[in-house]
Amino acid sequence: MRVRRRGKTTLPYTALAAGYDAVMAHVDYDAWALYAHILIQEHHTDPQSVLELGCGTGSLALALQPRGPYRYRATDGSAEMIEIARRKAELEGFPLTFDVADFTDFQVDDPVDAIVLLYDGLNYLLEEEQVSRLLRCAYEALRPDGVFLFDQTTPINSLNNADFFEDEGRARNFTYVRHSHYDEATRRHTTMFNLTVGSEKFYEQHVQRAYTLGEVRALIQATPFVEAAAYSDFTRNPATDASERIHWIVRRPAG
């Protein structure tokens, strides 16, 4: 299946926001939230507050916040995604705060105990300097002993799972056709969406970079963060070059 560009070209997660939950219906957010909660609890003595970056439509926030329960603020770069997240939280009666923010350029008024950025958010940063800016912002937003939990997909993931990024579907007044291509030379993973929202047609292109374990570790080591763990594929096993997804826990030292 090939996707030919049709309709108005929009920024990533603009038109897609309307049907994002349908596109991501295969994701077990409860399992993601449980894993994140366990790691936060194990690596922080008394976590009370959480800042989520790249929260999308708020599905992880709705699953993770009650597990603390945490004082929870969630941000995303897409105003369209945040609007849907707010509506979902209000409908469910969850005490969540949502803001539009770029996770490479953000500040908080009150530092938090934990920050999370999950489900490939880091991979959208195509240059190492962008990852460094993310790490600097996260460091400044944490209290001493605070932890930053984030994940990344690797080149192995893109090579092993290319066939899973070719699909199409519909939900109410939304339809999508998705095609994905991975370039081994540049390690860029490009996903193209043809979208129909109501009677309007849109095209979105999303580009991610597949980082290696060594690349991300080197970027962490260039910061004041202390690496607490790098886990492989939702386990407690140490990440290796063969891992498809790596879950990092880094800590801002006390004092």
Walk me through what this model shows.
The chain has 255 residues and is of the alpha/beta class. It folds into two domains: 21-155 and 213-251, 3-Layer(aba) Sandwich (Rossmann fold); 157-208, N-terminal domain of TfIIb, CATH 2.20.25. Helices cover 27% and strands 33% of the residues. The chain has seven helices and twelve strands. It has helices at 20-23, 29-43, 59-64, 79-92, 128-141, 155-160, 213-221, and strands at 8-9, 49-52, 71-76, 96-100, 112-117, 142-153, 167-171, 174-183, 188-197, 200-209, 226-232, 245-251. Strand 3 (71-76), helix 4 (79-92) and strand 4 (96-100) form a beta-alpha-beta unit. The chain is globular and about 55 Å long. The termini are far apart. The model has no long low-confidence stretch (mean pLDDT 95).
Summary keywords:
about 260 residues, alpha/beta, N-terminal domain of TfIIb, 2 domains, 12 strands
